[in-house]
Amino acid sequence: xxxxxxxxxAFGTHLSLACGGCVSNEYVISKHELTRLIQLPPxxxxxxxxxxxxxxxxxxWAVENGDALPETAYADExxxxxxxxxxxxxxxxxxxxxxxGVPDGAGWPKPPPRxxxxxxxxxxxxxxGSSSSSGxxxxxxxxxxxxxxxxxxxxxxxxxxxxxxxxxxxAAAGLAxxxxxxxxxxxxxxxxxxxxxxERGGGRPVPLDQLTPADVAGxxxxxxxxxxxxxxxxxxxxxxxxxxFAFKVDMGSxxxxxxxxxxxxxxSNIQLGFFPHHRVGVLGTLTLGGGTSPLxxxxxxxxxxxxxxxxxxxxxRLHLGGFAHGGYQLARDEFGTREGQAWGGGAIFxxxxxxxxxxxxxxxxxxxxxxxxxxxxxxxxxxxxxVAIY
Length: 390
Known about the structure:
Layout: H1 2-19, E1 23-30, H2 31-38, E2 49-55, H3 71-77, H4 84-99, H5 151-181, E3 184-188, E4 194-199, E5 202-207, H6 213-217, E6 221-225, E7 233-237, E8 244-258, E9 261-277, E10 280-292, E11 298-315, E12 318-333, E13 336-354, E14 357-368, E15 378-389
Antiparallel strand pairs: 1-2, 1-6, 2-3, 3-7, 4-5, 4-6, 8-9, 8-15, 9-10, 10-11, 11-12, 12-13, 13-14, 14-15
Helix pairs in contact: 1-5
C-alpha cells in the first residue's frame, strides 16, 4: 500500500502542476462576438469587445493603455474610420510626410490625430525575467486511516479516500490559480488593431476596422494579442458565469447519527458536472468521509450520487442556492460494512472571485439505509467549504 501511496501522491503533484497552467498573450474573440462587431461602424468596433484569454506562455509584457474610454470618445476620435475614402487620403498624406512633405497643390487636408487617444505603438523590451511558483497546503485528517474497526481492508479504503481527496485538492488548487489570473471580460481596441483570423491551415491578420462578413463567415474565431501594436485597454471582467463544465472540491466536518450510533469526523465532496444554464447544473458527486467515534473506533461514510444545483438568488458577488441528490452510500465501522441507497439535499452559497472561479460553502443533510440495524435509516450532516471552477 505504501508504494501505491507514493505513486498516487506523485501523480497528484504532477496533476496540480499540469492544471496550474500559465496564461498567454492571446485572447480569443468568438464567432458570435465577431458577428456582432462587423455590424457596427468601423469606428465603434473596438469600444467594447469580449475576449477570453488562452492558456500558454508569453514572452513580452502586455501593452496596457490605462483605463477604459467612454464610447463617445470612439465616435469623436475615430470617426474617419467610417469614411474609407477620406481615411485612404489621410494615409497617403502620412506617407508623403514621411517621404519629405506634401506636394504643392495637392489640396489634401492635414490628417486628423488618428492615434489619439491611443499612443503610437512602439517596440518594447522583453521582461528581464519572470518566475512562477506553486505551493500546496498540508492536509491533516487525523487518524482517519489509522487502526480501529474494519480490518485491513477498511484501512486500505480509508487511506485510498485520503489520497483521492489530496489529489483532488491539488488539482483544484492548480485550476484555481489559473482561472483566478485568466482574463474573461471586455477590452477596448484601436480600430487598426490586428485581428488574427483562425482559418484552416493557419491564420491571417486583418485590421479590426477592415473586417468583413466574408472574413467572419470563413472562421470560427479570431485572436488578438495584448503585446502587439496598440495593445488593450481593459474594461472589466465579466461576472461569475457557470455555464459549461464545472469542477468543485470542498472539505469540512461530518456527523453521522442513527438510533444506536453517533460520531463526528472529516468529509470532502469532489464534483464534476455541467451547467446548461448559469443558474442550473447537474453534477456527479463523490463524497468521502470518516473519523473516530467516541469509543475510539474508526468509522467511514463514502457515497456516490447525482446532484442537481440551482442558484436563484444573487447579489453582487454573493450567490445563494440549494441542491438535492440521490445515490448510494457505503458505511464501515465496528459494526461491519453496510451499503444502501442515500437521498439528501441542502443549502449552498458561492462568493465570486473571477468569471470562472468562486469560493463555495454548503450544508448537506443525507439519509441512507446504512444504519447498523437491518434496513434502518441513518443520517449524515456535513458542513463544508471549498472552491468551484467553471
